[in-house]
């Protein structure tokens, strides 16, 4: 049984599932503590940004895919820029899922995709060394960025990149961008061979 669990095809998805689940614990804890007759919006990271993303998703849910900023005093014509959240809102609304829950689900799905792509990159780097791949992936799951060396939270307390568990379920567009960057590295490496 233990040997079966340490097979790469079982262990890697299991590690991803565990790290994403651990990262979601605070959301579920707050959800359980929400008083009756109230709504927990699952807000995370920087609160004003969170509600702005939900606002853009609401535009998409209403069929307004082109962007404008409601908080601007100027009346801008809608433009085809920064469509990530309007398109997400459009597609989530077609499923009938609440936008707040949809935002959370996007974070979960993109976290799984990101860590799968990270493992694929590790696989490309160490094609014959299974043990080294698993160890490398484990260290990446628990690593923190360079901010840890210089505690920026003292100066800017809304930075959440310090805690590696908080970073797992991070901002959806950040997860998508880092996934796309890793895929570009893999693709261009293959292309240059």
What does this structure look like?
- The protein is mostly helical and 193 residues long.
- It has eight helices and no strands.
- The protein has helices spanning 2-5, 8-33, 47-61, 84-95, 99-125, 130-142, 164-168, 172-192.
- Helix 2 (8-33) packs antiparallel against helix 5.
- The protein starts with a helix and ends with a helix.
- The relative contact order is 0.13.
- Residues 146-154 have low confidence and may be disordered.
Helix content: 55-70%
Low-confidence stretches: 146-154
**Structural class, please?**
mainly alpha
The count of β-strands is 0
Percent strand equals under 5%
Q: Please tally the helical runs, counting DSSP H or I stretches of 4 or more residues.
A: 8
Radius of gyration: 19 Å
Secondary structure topology:
Elements (H helix, E strand, L loop, with lengths): L1 H4 L2 H26 L13 H15 L22 H12 L3 H27 L4 H13 L21 H5 L3 H21 L1
Helix pairs in contact: 2-5, 2-6, 3-4, 4-5, 5-6, 5-8
Question: Brief description of this entry?
Answer:
By secondary structure, the protein is mainly α. It is built from 8 helices and no strands.
What are the defining features of this structure?
single chain, 193 residues, mainly alpha, 8 helices, globular
């Amino acid at each position: 049984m233990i040997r079966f669990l340490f097979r790469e095809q079982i262990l890697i998805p299991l590690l991803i599932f565990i790290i994403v689940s651990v990262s979601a614990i605070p959301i579920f804890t707050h959800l359980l503590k929400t008083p009756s007759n109230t709504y927990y919006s699952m807000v995370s990271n920087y609160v004003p940004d969170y509600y702005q993303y939900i606002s853009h998703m609401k535009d998409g849910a209403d069929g307004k895919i082109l962007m404008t900023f409601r908080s601007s005093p100027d009346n801008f014509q809608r433009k085809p820029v920064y469509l990530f959240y309007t398109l997400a809102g459009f597609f989530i609304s077609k499923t009938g899922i609440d936008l707040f829950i949809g935002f959370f689900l996007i974070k979960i799905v993109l976290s799984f995709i990101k860590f799968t792509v990270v493992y694929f990159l590790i696989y490309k780097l160490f094609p014959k060394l299974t043990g080294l791949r698993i160890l490398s992936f484990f260290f990446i799951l628990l690593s923190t960025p360079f901010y840890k060396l210089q505690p920026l939270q003292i100066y800017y307390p809304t930075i959440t990149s310090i805690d590696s568990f908080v970073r797992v379920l991070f901002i959806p567009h950040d997860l998508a961008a880092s996934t796309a960057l890793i895929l570009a590295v893999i693709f261009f490496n293959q292309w240059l061979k």
